[in-house]
Specification:
By secondary structure, the protein is of the alpha/beta class. The chain has helices at about 50-65, 80-90, 105-110, 130-135, 165-170, 190-200, 235, 250-260; strands at about 5-10, 15-20, 30-35, 35-40, 75, 95-100, 120-125, 145-150, 175-185, 205-210, 220-230, 250.
């Protein structure tokens, strides 16, 4: 018989966060904010990743350094620390930095689901754009891998998705550092195409990974991951990294064709990401 699940609730100003244990898989928890799933984490095996987009990013992390070698990783947006726990499980002792807007959420998650003993994880509380704009100590400098997962419930605000913002992220990355941006979008992928164009204006190499068919005009909203670096991307040179079934990946000429005439997002003319509650996605 499935065990009784544990539920942790937390009020965040005018919003509500909930951490719920799976009935059938007692070590697995889902974090939601205002009823919108944000993260799934396994406390019994942090390398078990529920969402496809987290698996894509994890595979890119695996290739970013020799197996087990430390990887300076920055997480813009904490959630339930799914990928931070993955890095610690696969590269114990790796220095990691988390930038999180809501201290109460972070502290409640860590209290309910403690990090492994010895994890080298530091946190800066604040708005990611303000933190990126500020002069910081060396803890962010030279990041080998940066995960940009900056959701305000179900929407990404344009101030953390502009060319100016990504330039600041790039300035804090290592020469061969990889940036992975998690988006939510659907056909005709106007927002994601603009994001790809924006990242391409900052980094030398960009690839887009979609689990949905890029030309499927009946497809629902889904996660889109944009990888960017000034060095060739491992997910492009070795696409088998992403596992099976292999997702759709766009790079070089196919990415140019997909971006088409999509405009670069700047602070002046950026837009928020699509709201999944918009009737156009029904």
């Amino acid at each position: 018989m499935p065990s009784k699940r544990r539920v942790f609730s937390l009020m965040l100003d005018d919003r509500k966060a909930k951490l719920v244990q799976s009935r059938r898989r007692p070590g697995r928890y889902e974090l939601s904010v205002d009823g919108i799933p944000q993260s799934v984490v396994s406390m019994t095996d942090p390398t078990e990743l529920e969402y496809a987009y987290t698996r894509h990013i994890a595979r890119a992390m695996d290739a970013a350094a020799e197996p087990g070698a430390p990887l300076l990783t920055v997480h813009l947006g904490a959630g339930a620390l799914t990928l931070a726990r993955y890095v610690e499980a696969t590269r114990a002792g790796s220095p990691q930095l988390v930038v999180e807007f809501e201290p109460a959420l972070y502290e409640a998650v860590v209290a309910a689901l403690p990090l492994p003993a010895g994890a080298d994880l530091r946190v800066i509380f604040g708005d990611a754009r303000a933190v990126a704009d500020a002069e910081l100590p060396d803890e962010w400098a030279g990041a080998r891998f940066t995960v940009v997962d900056l959701w305000d419930a179900a929407v990404i605000r344009h101030r953390v998705a502009s060319q100016e913002f990504y330039r600041r992220v790039a300035a804090r990355s290592a020469a061969d550092g990889v940036v992975a941006v998690n988006l939510l979008d659907g056909h005709p992928f106007e927002y994601s195409r603009r994001q790809a164009a924006t990242l391409r204006s900052v980094f030398d190499h960009v690839a887009v990974v979609l689990d949905a068919e890029p030309n499927d005009d009946e497809g629902p909203l889904g996660n889109v991951v944009v990888f960017a670096s000034d060095a060739p991307l491992d997910v492009v040179t070795n696409p088998d990294l992403l596992g099976a079934p292999r997702p759709h990946m766009l790079h070089d000429a196919s990415l140019t064709s997909w971006i088409a005439d999509a405009r670069i997002m700047t602070d002046a003319d950026g837009t928020d990401s699509p709201d999944p509650d918009d009737p156009i996605w029904d």
